[in-house]
């Protein structure tokens, strides 16, 4: 639930089709260990359980247009966590069995803050945005059109997931949002969330519809280092081998300015060093080393990095060479195969009817259900419109429609089918993924390249920020928010949610 950043619910659900990772976060996790605690923490942290921390009848915000109770705030706090970090919390180095107050947050833009501080900052911003949007909508007589449907879709999905877990809907809500949270409280909170989202999107629609190829091209030109990659060959060679400094060998390699010459010189050196070993590699192992040392590597730009500043310089040409002498005892030698160009990741648009193993009891039953739905559709009108109608009514996924679904988010047979070269608009099939369950899928066409998706998201974020600033200038409603409640938020997941690892959120949310 990120109103200022374009983290719409659809994007959160897209992540359910595959794991995603962030290189910077991963690097920090690898060096930091399993859990990082606050350095000043010397005693066991006090655990604020959700069922006791929030007082009843307290209003975080109250007006004729919008009421947010303390219980609703608690619900929104957890909802924000699950949709933003839940399924990837382990990648963020967060142990969900511990309190948020005793762990540092590597997902934060600023260093040294705890997860409790990060999550509190997030929900504070979200509540502020929600209040501003809803009050502005009321002032302008806006009528909501999608909120009720969004609420029912969400609750239906929770009920389905709860059934698979042996929980009724109310039990599911209490397990994941706190024992004091009822279905009514969840509905009220979801109404605030979806109302703010709908009105934000309404205000942004004119801007979004106005975007054309020129806007995307201009954005790319101004931000190309965010999207571009280069193709290189990297060969790493010992600086000191058997007491001999290999500077002359480096000079010989970087003097090669065709790919054929460079690869040949690399192979020559690999074979030389192998011949000097007491136990040289076999020819088969040596061939693999040569192959790995001369293969193409795609590299992104890293600001301030010595290699990146060389590789992405405007004067760079194919065949240029470069080397770095690093503290790892190696020369890192580079050959530029292709100058900077936008890295285009494939995406696709599709509708689907998902039959999950959880909802159907077994993989065999899920397959049978998918085949049954597919046969029913083909026996009817067998049109795009009839598929959409069935997908809305028969789905274990709250979303039946995916636009710009990244290839890297989709696995197994589904991925192979969706991105085959001869795929045509209107193609249909029953497919599965590495995560289980079966999908009756309707192919709508190629999606937008990922760099354009990112550019669009960033431009819309900027538009959203500008819109929010304009709305704030029209009237100060933030002063009516009781910020004291934010200091009383829970600092640990509800006990029911702690029974599931973050990887299980894929099936829960």
Structure notes:
The two termini are 13 Å apart. The chain has helices at residues 9-14, 23-32, 50-53, 70-84, 115-139, 147-165, 169-177, 183-210, 213-222, 247-254, 259-275, 283-293, 306-311, 357-360, 363-379, 384-393, 412-418, 450-474, 495-498, 505-508; strands at 59-62, 67-69, 228-238, 240-241, 244-245, 297-300, 321-325, 330-342, 347-355, 401-406, 428-432, 438-446. Helix 6 packs across helix 8 (183-210). It is globular. Strand 1 and strand 2 (67-69) form a beta hairpin. The chain has a four-stranded antiparallel beta sheet. A four-stranded antiparallel beta sheet has the order 10-9-12-11, with helices on both faces. Strands 1-2 form a two-stranded antiparallel sheet. It has 509 residues and is an alpha+beta fold.
Q: Topology, pairings included?
A:
Blueprint: H1 9-14, H2 23-32, H3 50-53, E1 59-62, E2 67-69, H4 70-84, H5 115-139, H6 147-165, H7 169-177, H8 183-210, H9 213-222, E3 228-238, E4 240-241, E5 244-245, H10 247-254, H11 259-275, H12 283-293, E6 297-300, H13 306-311, E7 321-325, E8 330-342, E9 347-355, H14 357-360, H15 363-379, H16 384-393, E10 401-406, H17 412-418, E11 428-432, E12 438-446, H18 450-474, H19 495-498, H20 505-508
Antiparallel strand pairs: 1-2, 3-6, 3-8, 4-5, 7-8, 9-10, 9-12, 11-12
Helix pairs in contact: 4-5, 4-8, 5-8, 6-7, 6-8, 8-18, 10-11, 11-12
